Amino acid sequence: MAEELGATLDPTGLSKYRDKIINGPVVSTFLWLGIPPFLNQLVFIAYNVADTYWLSCYDELCVSVPRQVFPVLMLFQALVMATNAACLSIVSQYVGAKAYKNASLEASRFFTAACLSGIALNIIFLT
Fold first, then answer.
1. In this prediction, what percent of the chain has a pLDDT beyond 70?
2. Where are the domains of the chain?
3. Tens digit of pLDDT for each residue in 66-76?
């Protein structure tokens, strides 16, 4: 089945990472996989603290502005997370079938769609 989907024999060295995840020690694997999301959250928290500090220096009422726009922001984040989950599901199925060429193609398509939709939303909402 993998040959029908355009698979090649592990051109990117994914089996090395697969073996590390499946056969490696649990704690170090969790840390290895968990550090990027952890760093992402640290950046997000630092941004929010800096934003709150800056707004509080500007005016006391301005601190409430992020809370007012938070529901709309969460709506867009929910749409992004749903699209991201769909991308992850499709790419994971291709990687599981060892169809790396198709997985790369689908990831490229989702990345292009995300960039184009981001540009379109910026044009719509910022003009």
1. 91
2. 13-58, 68-127
3. 888 888 888 98
